[in-house]
Every structure is written in C-alpha cells, then in structure tokens.
Write a structure and sequence with these properties.
Number of strands of chain B: 4
Number of domains of chain A: 1
CATH topology of chain B: ABC transporter involved in vitamin B12 uptake, BtuC
Strand content of chain B: under 5%
Largest sheet of chain A: 2 strands, antiparallel
Order of helices and strands of chain A: HHHHHHHEHEEHHHHEHHH
Number of helices of chain B: 14
Structural class of chain A: mainly alpha
CATH superfamily of chain B: ABC transporter involved in vitamin B12 uptake, BtuC
Oligomer: heterodimer
Shape of chain B: globular
Distance between the termini of chain A: 15 Å
Strand order of the largest sheet of chain B: 1-4
Radius of gyration of chain A: 20 Å
Number of strands of chain A: 4
CATH architecture of chain B: Orthogonal Bundle
Strand order of the largest sheet of chain A: 1-4
CATH class of chain B: Mainly Alpha
Chain lengths: 337, 319
C-alpha cells in the first residue's frame, strides 16, 4: 500500500484518506467508479435521484446482490458456482408449480429450499464425486437449465400470491425496496458466518491454501457442501424475488446471472484466487452495475450500449484496483508476483 | 494397445461416443443414415474448431469466455460484408482477421492490465456482444451466397463434407503448432508451472498474445461457418458457445489445471455432443432435455476421469 504513496502528494493524501476509512487500495476501484458515476448522473440525469427510480435501481441491485453475496463466500473459498443462472429459473418455477395451494411465504420458502437442494446436488458432485467446482457447476448449469425448460414447458408461470408481489415490489418509506432489506439481512448473516463463526476461518483457509487447510484438519467436504447449499438457497431467494418483480417465472429469467454475479464479486474487490474477500464490495458493485444500466437509459443512450458499459466497468474497476494497490505494471518499482 | 487407448486421457469421450452411438442406433436406426451422420459431422466440425482453440487456452491454464461473442461478431461481420458484395475469399480473410484482432484485444487486457483471463474475457464477452447489437441493431443479417453455404455443408469430391475437411486442416495445423513448435511447448509449460516457465525464459506475454489471437481466429472461423450454414447472422450466434466449448475441451480429457492439452479428445467430445443432440432429436426427445443429458455426460465423464487419474483424494481439485 505504501508504494502508491511514493508517487505524489495527491496520492499520499488519498492514501491517508483511504487508510482512515479502511478501504484497501486494491478494492478502491468500486468506490471510485461509484463516486464518479454518481457525480456524472447528478449533472446529466438528475432524475436518477427520484424515489421511483432509486427504488428500481436498488431492486435490481438487490436481486443481483443476494446471489452475488453467496458467490462471494464461495469464491473466497476458492470455488465457483456457474449453475446459479439455472437455479434462478428453476427454483421459482418449482415453487410456483408446487402442488397444493401454497401461501406466499411458503412459496418463497419452497424456492429457497429448492435452491438449497440444487446447491446440495452441486456440493455432492464436488465433494463425493470429486469433480472440480468449475466443471461440476458447468454441468449442473446445463442440467438444471434443461430441467427448468422441461418442467415449465417453456411457458411463463404466473405469480398469484399478493405476498410475493408485495415482497418484490413494495417499499419501506417509499424508497427502499423490501428486496434491499432482504439483501442487508443476507449480508449480515454472511458477515456473521465469515467473521464470527469458525466456518469463516475455514472458508478463508480453504481459499488461500487448500492443502494446508486439509492438513490442518478442516473438514473441507463439510465446508464446500455448506457453501454450495448456501449459494443455492440464496439464489433461490433472489429468483423468487425476481419472479415477483416480473410477475411470472420463466426458466431463462436471469440470463448470464452467473457471469454477472462473478463480475460483481470481482469488481467489488474479492480476488478470484480466494482466501479473502469483501461483502461490502460485492454490494457496492451490484449497485454500480445497476446504476450504470439505469443511468444509460436515463441519459437516453441506446440500450445496446449497456453490454459495452458492463464490460468497460469491469475492466476499469480492476484497472483502478491495480493502480490503487501499487501493482500497476507501469508503476512497478520492483518485480511483483 | 487397447489398454493404452482405454487409459489415455481421451478414453472417457471415446467410450462415451461409442456408447452413445450404439444406444441411439438401438433406439431408432434412422440414427445411422447418411443424412444424419452428415449433419453430425458438420455440427461437430464447427464446435471442434472452436474447441481446439479453447484447448490451447485451457492448456495454458487460462480461460476464454469471449469465444461465443467472437463467433457472433465474425458471423455478423461476414454477413454484412457479403451483403455489400465483397467477394467471399476476402470476406473470409477479413472475418478471420477480425477474430484475431479481438483475440489480440483479450491478450492485451491480460498482459497490460494484468487482469486474470477469466475477468478479461468476461469483460470482452460483454463488450463484443454490445458491439454486435450496435451493428445489427437487433436485426438479422441475411446472406444470399450459395458458395458460402456449400463451403460448409457441401462436399469435397462429393464425399467429404467441407466442414469436416476444414476441421481436419485446422486440427492438423493446431496439432503441429502445439506438439511440434516451441510455441506450443511454451503454452503447455506456462499452464503447467508458470514460474518455472518464466524461469526457463518463456516469454509469457508473447505466448499469451499468440494463444488468444489464435483462439480468436478459430472462433471467427467457426462463426463464419455457422453464418454460411444458416445463411444469416444475428447477435444470438455463439451465445453460450464458450461454455459449450469449455465443456467439450474438458470432456475431451484436458484438465483445467493446465499443462497439457488433448486435441484428439476435444474433437471426440465435439462429436459426442453433436451425436447426442442428433440422437435425442431422432429419438423424438424434446430438445429441452439436451442440457440434462449433456450436463450429465460432462459430470460423469469427469468423475470417471478423476477415478482414472487416481486423483480422488479427500482434498478437492479446485480450479
């Protein structure tokens, strides 16, 4: 961190600011980008700050964020879950098609439970079947996706329950969607797991050096099973909220959710190598992506630019992170790994 | 000899391929008709070409998630150029150059910005897709060029489907590059142990540029072939193709940990996938179940691979 301070007085000031509010250099990308874009929007699209609009953006960000939070702790443990896209579709479909006239809260529960079971399948394939997570979840992505399409027969399943519609669309104080409240609760739980339970240490140990973790007696099978179940459950939750927002469940309702979630995790500052991570960063990144997409529409830009924007943000955030950590290839004073 | 084949890295896909062919023929003997087999060969050739590029990348312990987008972009570029009356040979060259340039872009993001390949190609996946949409504005570009169709579906000397001929040539080139050139050895070296490779003097940045550009060119070729076959192109071409390509490479026996690349296995796995799709189609199974079957094959193939390698230990193989 100190090598950044070698460059100039401004950098030194920024470094001190950063240290004071405890933002690590290599995670500053998401903060900087958020700040820049908020300023930009204040000038060029002030209607961004309307209550209704903020509500929509928060909702979008929360839906992505809930799944991305699960992905964060998975990546911290050194694994991936590529099947979340499929779970986002399959879990709500199963919940809505579940026999018996289920009440709203029960449907949500079934969706979460279905997600958890699908996550369990992932976990079992990885721990008992000894298949690498990347590949295993690639396989289940195909398989679950196919199941979703088959069960729903390609049709949209409509949401009847007012509870779910309210959960997805309703707000606290007219501004903060319930989905954001859910996200905060989820983050709180994950924070508890990471920093207050033994599991958190095991997760980070597994992510930093899996052999050392194994040799020191950590039950890795349990850790990964747990993580995939949690990831699946959270995805099931995000899925039913999205379904409520769209008023119907379609198997492909969250295209590229897996890549978007991983992007949010990475932009937020969690390293793909695992061992360390930031939940706050993930939430900020989910907000960032959501804000940019919304902002582009408000500014009147062709919606096709959104894809370009997502990619550019990804690159920018990481490049800024590299500069912030003093690791940038042009600024390197000594050879870093 | 049989033992050597069975214990080779591509054994999983070879066995699966034979099994699949047998099963589907038993279900419906229309599976073995010439029309069906030709369809399988064309489809397999196209995915094999993209898969071969991906094999090299995975051998280098990297990932290229933008392959699908490059396919789409080159398909669209080719279609647009043809609609302006540009002669086909020029269109093909231009398309390949576009693919190479996009691959080069990938490599620069990785080299200059030191982004992990996963992230860099994730970004370009989005950016290139955005580019595609901006160019086509969501519309489909039609091609009216019989030659481009014949070059894919038509047959050399009336017997060998051109797609397979092209794939065979590509295979020969990639094989030569990978096994007989220093570049190819460097690719595997970087994947096996990057530090050792650097220590041995391998120019990692140059090899990265080479591998990703090559993958881009091959993806572009696959995209052009798809466009020629369908006689149109839009932004849905190649969507999701990168994941399928990775699956094909992995089923073919190449490990995601890098260090080796099984080109033969990739081709076998491509045939496997194509056969499964065609077989399900003929057996009148809804195409919705394709994913289930292919996902299952992927997982089972890897479980078997783990068994064969003797890498079933309590600690996990984490990528």
């Amino acid at each position: 961190m100190s090598s950044a301070a070698e460059h100039s007085g401004v950098a030194e000031m920024l470094t001190r600011f950063r240290t004071q509010i405890r933002i690590r250099g290599d995670r500053s990308g998401v903060w900087v980008l958020n700040a820049i874009i908020l300023v930009f929007l204040a000038f060029w699209a002030p209607n961004f700050f309307n209550a209704g609009n903020i509500h929509a953006v928060l909702n979008d960000a929360s839906i992505l964020g809930i799944g991305a939070t699960g992905m964060t702790i998975l990546i911290m443990a050194g694994a991936f879950d590529l099947s979340v896209t499929a779970i986002m579709g399959l879990a709500p479909i199963v919940a809505l098609m579940f026999p018996g006239n289920l009440s709203g809260p029960l449907i949500v529960l079934v969706s979460v439970a279905t997600g958890a079971i699908l996550g369990l399948v992932n976990g079992l394939i990885i721990t008992r079947g000894h298949v690498a997570p990347f590949v295993a979840t690639l396989g289940t992505l195909f398989a679950f996706g196919s199941l979703g399409a088959a069960i729903s027969d390609g049709n949209a399943i409509y949401v009847q329950s007012p509870f779910i519609l309210e959960l997805a669309g309703g707000t606290v104080w007219g501004l903060i969607p319930y989905s954001f409240v859910v996200l905060l609760v989820v983050c709180g739980l994950c924070w508890l797991i990471l920093r207050r339970l033994h599991m958190g240490r095991w997760i980070r140990a597994a992510g930093s050096n899996i052999r050392a973790a194994h040799v020191s007696g950590i039950d890795l099978q349990w850790v990964y099973l747990f993580l995939f179940v949690v990831s699946g459950a959270l995805t099931g939750l995000a899925g039913i909220i999205l379904t409520g927002y769209l008023s119907s469940a379609v198997a492909t309702q969250a295209p590229n959710y897996n890549l978007n979630a991983i992007a949010a995790v990475v932009v937020g500052g969690t390293s793909l190598r695992g061992g360390e991570g930031t939940l706050l960063g993930t939430v900020l990144a989910a907000w960032l992506f959501s804000m940019v997409n919304n902002g582009l529409i408000l500014v009147g830009v062709n919606s096709y630019w959104q894809y370009l924007a997502t990619g550019v943000i990804l690159v920018l955030a990481l490049a800024l992170g590299m500069i912030g950590s003093g690791n940038y290839v042009w600024a390197r004073k000594e050879v870093k790994d | 000899m049989l033992k050597r084949v069975l214990s080779s890295e591509s054994s999983a896909s070879i066995i699966a391929l034979i099994g699949v062919v047998v099963i589907f023929t038993l279900i419906n003997d229309r599976f073995l008709t010439r029309l069906n087999i030709e369809g399988i060969i064309v489809s397999a050739s196209i995915s094999a070409i993209a898969g071969l590029g991906m094999t090299l990348i995975i051998a280098m312990r990297a990932l290229d998630l933008s392959v699908g987008s490059i396919m789409g972009f080159s398909a669209i570029s080719g279609a647009i150029l043809l609609s302006y009356g540009v002669p086909l040979p020029l269109v093909i060259v231009a398309g390949l150059i576009v693919g190479g340039a996009l691959g080069f872009l990938n490599s620069q993001l990785i080299n200059l910005l030191r982004l992990p390949s996963f992230v860099a190609t994730l970004a370009t996946l989005s950016m290139i897709l955005g580019g595609e949409l901006l160019i086509t504005e969501g519309a489909t570009v039609t091609i009216r060029n019989g030659m481009s169709s014949r070059l894919v579906i038509g047959k050399l000397f009336g017997i060998f489907p051109w797609a397979a001929v092209i794939a065979a040539i590509v295979f020969a080139c990639v094989w030569t590059i990978f096994h007989w050139t220093p570049f190819g050895r460097h690719v595997a070296a970087i994947g096996g142990d990057t530090r050792a490779a650097v220590g041995a003097g391998v120019n990692v940045k140059a090899v990265t540029v080479g591998v990703f550009s090559l993958a881009g060119v091959l993806a572009a070729l696959a995209g052009l072939m798809v466009a020629g076959m369908l006689q149109n192109a839009d932004s849905t071409v190649g969507v999701g193709a990168e994941l399928t390509a990775i699956a094909v490479v992995v089923v073919g026996g190449t490990s995601l940990m890098g260090g080796r690349g099984n080109l033969v296995g990739t081709v076998c796995a491509a045939f496997l996938l194509a056969s499964v799709k065609a077989g399900l189609n003929i057996a009148n199974v809804s195409s919705k179940y394709e994913g289930l079957v292919f996902g299952g094959i992927l997982i089972i193939a890897l479980m078997a691979d783990g068994l064969r390698r003797g890498t079933r230990r309590k600690g996990m193989l984490v990528v």
